[in-house]
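Lecture 7 notes: from sequence to structure.
We start with the chain below.
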Amino acid sequence: MQNILQHRLSSSRAFRLRFASIALVVCGLLLSAWPIAATPAWAEEKLTVYSGRAERLIKPVLDSFTAKTGIQIDLLSSGTTELVNRLKIEGDRSPADLFITNDAGSLEIARTAGLLRPLNMREIDRAIPSQFRAVDNSWIGLSGRFWIIVYNTTLVKPDQVKSLLDLANAEWKDKIAIPNSGSEYLQAGVSVIRASVGDERTKSFLQGLRDNAGSQVYQKSSQIVEAVAKGQVAIGIVNHYYVYRHLAAQPTAPLAVLMPDQHEGGMGAIMNVAGVGILKHTPRLDNAKLLVEFLVAQAGQKMFADLDKEYPLHPEVKADPALIERKSFRAALVPLTKLAELREPTQLLIEQVGLR
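Predicted structure tokens for the same chain:
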């Protein structure tokens, strides 16, 4: 009896092993036949954006895009230079699909490094004039900003200054506030001045600016506006929208904007743009194009005008009425695409002068 029982147990174990083996083979065949996506379906309905713009300025626009399309945005905000360097290091392994930033020079550097994808989109050609785009549409300007003089209306009369270069004069000693030497706004502005008046005059301007500002050198443009509003200094140099945002929150602040270099022979106001580029390696090209299309369309452009107090680049979208009418002043003629090649020698000149 015991031998019979052992035989049956042995037979049962063998059957279970054979059944398990057959089941594994069947499961393997089923799995091999089952269509497996490279990425989950939900992952296709999202985009990763690297942004050199402050999150509070760009996130409302991206949230509006998500509400309209259902495409989620993962936003990484950091300094523009840091993001360009990061993209170079990450290469094709970068999770970023798009790069948005506040300086045409940085976008052009990304283009020449081969990071961005040229675009052939009628929506771009219709919406954004060619002077605000890369030659191959690998980056597209979204909104314009001007480097202006903000002054305290109780301390300065508007006819006292005509040009940015005037701020190097001795009469402004200890009366001005400026960005620090690492500011992309400063570097872009000085690049335009170099291209307009040459290195010698630019160097003299920077030396005067250094001496007149003294310790009034700031990391944030909003701090410059605050210093001018409080009367700690009479004048500051910032992008225009910092002033209008301050006035929107504090309409009685004694602040006004002077659009410089409009006199005969003046170089014109210094302009830069915030813009966007699609990363060359993105596997989500269609969704990335949808975002670009949204940003350049009238609805997206109006958001930049209303929320950020910037000048829309779409010719049919009006700026905030509080801003100086765009048709009333002229811009410097230095092409935005030259800001990249001008940057390195500009940085060297700033360093030689000893700006903080």
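Points to note: The beta strands are 46-51, 72-77, 98-101, 140-152, 176-179, 217-218, 235-239, 255-258, 270-278, 311-312. The chain has two domains: 41-144+272-326, 145-270+342-353.
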